[in-house]
Automatic annotation (TrEMBL):
InterPro entries: PPIase_dom_sf (IPR046357), PPIase_PpiC (IPR000297), PPIase_PpiC_CS (IPR023058), PrsA_foldase (IPR050245). Its EC number is 5.2.1.8. It holds the Pfam family Rotamase. It comes from the Bacteria. Gene3D superfamilies: 3.10.50.40, Porin chaperone SurA, peptide-binding domain. It catalyses: [protein]-peptidylproline (omega=180) = [protein]-peptidylproline (omega=0). PROSITE patterns: PPIC_PPIASE_1 (PS01096), PPIC_PPIASE_2 (PS50198), PROKAR_LIPOPROTEIN (PS51257). Belongs to the PpiC/parvulin rotamase family. The lineage of its organism: Bacteria, Pseudomonadati, Pseudomonadota, Gammaproteobacteria, Chromatiales. Keywords: Isomerase, Rotamase. GO terms for molecular function: peptidyl-prolyl cis-trans isomerase activity. This is peptidylprolyl isomerase. Residues 159-257 form the PpiC domain. It is an enzyme of class 5 (isomerase).
Length: 593
């Protein structure tokens, strides 16, 4: 299979800059003054439609420019087409100017750009090869979607689920269980009288769920132990259970919200159905093609791949055959870009490294067969690479223009720096020691001991290790983000600690853990001079649209844009030019692979 792709390859290559480009693109080339029609009597070359300084624009060039953008900028019904065309003409002229500035600055001659272009060429060639083979796939009709839905009805039935809260008191003997039951009876009465379950769970529960206000999350029937499951799925919404006594303690449960079981409608299922059918059709086309290339590229198995990724050797090769090589460093960069792309698209499941590596090998196989059998028309790849290069240079120069606009007003930057000190200070860091104890049959008793120790100012991870076993390790300084990567609740547990204190314990899939704060590194604000580049970056990110409009206004005030009114009227009367395959369609094909 091929690696998932976004609608435009440039978004993938630029990673986080793609969203930034879209922000400024939303206001691109919308000068408040608009284009000035040239006075009557002006001589126009055949096909010419607009002038901007030394730049000239003809109808054919404008058509090509619009075709490249129709998937993202198609005018909605009712749009004033004359205004829409004026904006596209302005946009073209600005991009031509930005491209000229980028080339004059030597951006296309930098080693980084040359390396990116070589990588992009291979990926663009793969896209063109894919388009060659799949552009004639039959469209997915309503009947196809309905038939697929009927074949998979069982997959579209959503069972009932319940958002469940839990309050637990640990108790190891009959007397302790009786005491805990009486306590939970009193807490239940308070909840029935209007007290908040989450607040009581945070104050009284021995379960880790207390850090989330007692929330266990959305549960389906059968996920909990049988005794607790029966109670949860027998409760009315908002009514706490009677205390439930188990071998290790007493539980109080409440269902906050119930989502009834239901069947997903055909309309709701359409995106999934469409993707499934498209994937099947694309696989039917691509599978026999890649089988014609017998190279295995020395691909490691899953265990070897994970070992290579952990090794830290960025130059270790993962795929190699002839001129094609993929090393660990490049693969990590691709994984990072893919992860960022998936996060912006709200993908629930990140791609597994093994699947991505298989996809990259499949893409290269497809490209090789395509090259060997000469599928592509002469010049098609060169034209596509030139288009990519133009987009990258324009995007880079646009970013530079925004930085220049921001840097020109130092007083505004200094004000921004003074108003946002947290952005330009070193983050809080915690120096921690951690005790990890493997889960075993005594885990409940061990957790009780850790809970008690977390309230004892004299306890330490060393004394706990001597009493309970496990391993103690010193962690490198941890920021909030790094704590959250360990456990989502950990920042809230560590933040209030004083040096020497222990956190509340945590249970993971394999261990019980408790942390001791050694020291806390407070934020250190950076001076404006030291943080100037970051100030500009953050200011541009926040004010990109206004800065770009400022640039446009200045540009068109310095040099008038002239448009042939007669040629523009002809454009408005004609239909919009159409691409042979839409960017959206190509994106769907790439997603399916």
């Amino acid at each position: 299979m091929l690696a998932p792709r976004s609608a435009r390859f440039s978004n993938v290559l630029c990673g986080g800059l793609a969203l930034f480009s879209l922000i400024v693109f939303a206001t691109a080339c919308s000068p408040r003054s608009g284009g000035d029609d040239t006075p009557s009597g002006t001589e126009w070359a055949p096909g010419e439609i607009a002038r901007f300084g030394d730049f000239r624009l003809d109808r054919e060039t404008l058509d090509r420019f619009i075709v490249e953008r129709l998937a993202e900028e198609r005018p909605v019904p009712g749009t004033d087409l004359e205004t829409w065309y004026r904006e596209r003409i302005s946009e073209y002229m600005i991009e031509v100017q930005l491209l000229q500035q980028a080339r004059e600055a030597g951006r296309d001659r930098s080693p980084e750009f040359i390396a990116s272009r070589a990588s992009a060429r291979s990926q663009i060639e793969t896209e063109l090869c894919l388009r060659h083979q799949t552009s004639q796939l039959p469209p997915i009709e309503r009947a196809d979607l309905e038939a697929e839905y009927e074949r998979n009805l069982d997959l579209f039935n959503k069972p009932e689920r319940r958002l469940t809260l839990h309050l637990y008191r640990r108790a190891g003997d009959e007397e302790a269980r009786a005491t805990a039951r009486a306590e939970l009876d009193r807490l239940r009465d308070r909840i029935l009288q209007g007290d908040d379950f989450g607040r009581l769970a945070r104050a009284h529960s021995d379960s880790e769920s207390r850090h989330r206000g007692g929330e266990l999350g959305w549960l389906f029937q059968g996920e909990l132990p049988d005794a607790i499951d029966r109670v949860v799925f027998g409760l009315e919404e908002g009514v706490p259970s009677r205390p439930l006594v188990t071998e290790d303690g007493v539980h109080l449960l409440m269902v906050q919200t119930i989502t009834p079981a239901r069947a997903v409608s055909l309309i709701e299922a359409l995106p999934i159905l469409h993707e499934q059918i498209l994937q099947e059709r694309v696989e039917e086309v691509i599978r026999p093609i890649v089988e014609r290339d017998s190279s295995d590229f020395g691909m490691p198995d899953q265990a070897e791949l994970l070992a290579l990724l952990r090794s830290g050797d960025a130059e270790a090769l993962l795929l190699q055959d002839g001129d094609y090589q993929l090393d660990v460093g490049d693969f990590r960069r691709r994984l990072a870009l893919l992860s960022e792309q998936q996060s912006t698209e709200a993908r629930a499941q990140p791609a597994h490294p093994w699947s991505v590596l298989q996809a990259l090998r499949t893409r290269e196989k497809l490209r090789r067969v395509c090259e060997q059998e000469a599928w592509l028309a002469e010049g098609a790849l060169a034209a596509a690479v030139e288009r990519w290069e133009r987009e990258q240079l324009v995007s880079a120069q646009r970013r530079q223009v925004l930085r220049d606009q921001a840097a020109a007003d130092e007083a505004r930057l200094r004000l921004y720096h003074s108003q946002n000190p947290d952005q330009f200070s070193t983050p809080v860091r915690w120096n921690l020691r951690r005790l990890r104890i493997a889960l075993d049959a005594e885990a409940s008793a061990t957790m009780a001991a850790l809970e008690a120790a977390s309230q004892d100012d004299q306890a330490s991870v060393d004394s706990l290790q001597m009493a309970l076993g496990g391993q103690v390790e010193s962690l490198p300084p941890q920021r909030v983000l790094e704590l959250r990567q360990i456990a989502s609740v950990l920042p809230a547990l560590i933040a209030p600690l004083e040096p020497g204190q222990l956190s509340a314990p945590l249970r993971t899939l394999e261990h019980l853990e408790i942390y001791q704060l050694v020291s806390r590194e407070e934020p250190v604000p950076a001076s404006f001079e030291a943080a100037r580049e970051r100030v500009i970056t953050n200011f541009v990110r926040q004010h990109a649209a206004a800065l770009y409009q400022q640039y446009l206004d200045q540009t068109f005030a310095e040099q008038a844009l002239r448009i042939d009114a007669e040629a523009l009227a002809q454009l408005v009367e004609a239909e919009l030019p159409q691409p042979d395959i839409s960017a959206e369609r190509l994106s769907q094909l790439l997603e399916a692979l």
